[in-house]
Amino acid sequence: MTKINTLLVANRGEIACRIMRTAIAQGLRTVAVYSDADAKALHVKMADDAVWIGPAPVNESYLLIDKIIQAAKDTGADAIHPGYGFLSENAAFSQACANAGIIFVGPPEKAIDVMGDKARSKRAMITAGVPCVPGYQDDDQSDETLISEAKKIGAPLMVKAAAGGGGRGMRLVHDLGEVPNAIKLARSEAENAFGNGELILEKAIIKPRHVEIQVFADSHGNTIHLGERDCSVQRRHQKVIEEAPCPVLTLELRAQMGAAAVEAARAVDYVGAGTVEFLLDQSGEFYFLEMNTRLQVEHPVTEEITGLDLVALQLKVAQGDLLGITQDDVKLSGHAMEVRLYAEDPNDDFLPSTGHIDLWKPSDLSRVDSGIETGGEVSPFYDSMVAKIITHGATRDEARRRMIKALSETALFGPKTNRDFLIDALDKPDFVDGQATTAFIAENYGEGGVDLGTLSFEYYAIAAVLQHKLRQRAAHKMALNVNTEMLDWSNTGALETVVQYTGQNEGDEDKQSIHVHVSDPHKYKVTRGGDEADVELLSMSTDKAKLKVNGHNVIAIYHHNHRTLHIATPKRSLTVTDLTGLSAMEDAGGGGTVVAPMHGQLLEILVEEGMRVSKGDKLAVLEAMKMQHEILAEIDGTVEMIAAKAGTQIAADDLILEIAADEDKIDDT
Fold first, then answer.
1. Is residue 475 over pLDDT 90?
2. What's the pTM value of the predicted model, to 2 decimals?
């Protein structure tokens, strides 16, 4: 038996970090691979060694089998763990590892090959006696045959790509007249996404639960299951909330589904970790959906209720060792939940969001699997899931309440995220009651974007008070011999600060002026037109503040970057930029050093290196907060260097250009 000493992780992000944590704990040497976009990523920093494999696009880096095999050879890796996604379910990659004498931490080529094709896997499962959804999965792929078979199945039905997953190449048909167009669209998507236009048809199970069974097998013929996970809360067939065990499964049904999953694994001589996915209808009937021949994103909830480290088990059986546990050894304890934190905008149809991470502050109340850190980047080239948050409790409701609490103490500032949506979803009555099905999001939020309601004035009042204090602290640092106790005090009457925001979180492009009136030190009356709020600042650290707002205590995590302020309260998040005095951009130039006053897109640079400019000349145009802002020269001089590029996103305080001041304008005194 070959022992693993050096493990190469052929992946990135949170799963690469997750695998490395176990490998490092076992004393293994670890190797990362990375693209141009991931040169400074967390998984690269964690590894003992790292190998560059190409440009950012996946087909030029993470999907290149030859480069990854070569990286393993060059670093002396005994084994490769593929994680999930990318090459994890690629039979050719498994075989390439075998050909190179490298252990592939996953199943053999046969299992990947059969289970990676929905048509072949379904035929194999029917032969093995595993319950399957009625449908068509044969070789004749002519439109005529597919349309004819669709009529036999009847509506509603699913037209699905035989290869791949993730909801691509999938169409739900309610009217048989829609079948020809559904075939055309699904086939086109499948060919573009997977290079394979083969389709299958299945009877649509309306409002089912998505229940999957974790299986494990060694190379000595031992196969067991580790219970189930309920992954019903999905959008566009992508899982959002997962839990274990399933809220409605009886002991008898768990045993039946577990036995079926074990038979499915044995039918393809499976080795390693795998997941058999089923649809569970409202009558208690279950049907094979597919098998994922890899570690699942949601494996932590199984770890939490079984006490097992699934990556450690993968490494164990990959070396040829016995699994070491029997079905009778598997005990399920308590309840676990996992949510996927995505960099996306739920309000805008869940569109991915990318950019600089100003602050990543996860809660200490939960297990957090992530591959990001403050100062990093969310790249547009890869999946938008950036972290997983996992909680465990003695009961389902305890795990759910802990999750809400953990999310309320979590902040990711920079890209937009689905944090607020997750908090809201976890508190919906049908989820609280354990009745969520795959229709949960559509039923509770409708189609398209998610509207969580207009933010109340209190959130803007909190922002205004925090910016008032931040301005005050900045000014105090520059002052001499001013006692901090004198802040918020004046002998000329009440102090007032004015901030000016756009209503970006409400879809309101108009400016709004908010007045902060100091009534007593640390106590404020905040007004906006007819709105008002009483705010008391109880405490304030570098990234967290405790306030009393209209008599109620609120904890706010915050991050301040120049004029932009990010806030995360227990239920809602807010990002505002103070536009007060911005029309003149008096602070944008900073003398000869010209920096971006806020995050935005640099639309134009209107000067060139070597060009003479005078004070007040227009240097650049920045688009931020749905408005265009002119950046003006503050001094006379010559443009010495241009650091930024027009048409790109730029962060607050990033250097745009530098101006060398005219010598006769410099004060030498």
1. no
2. 0.83
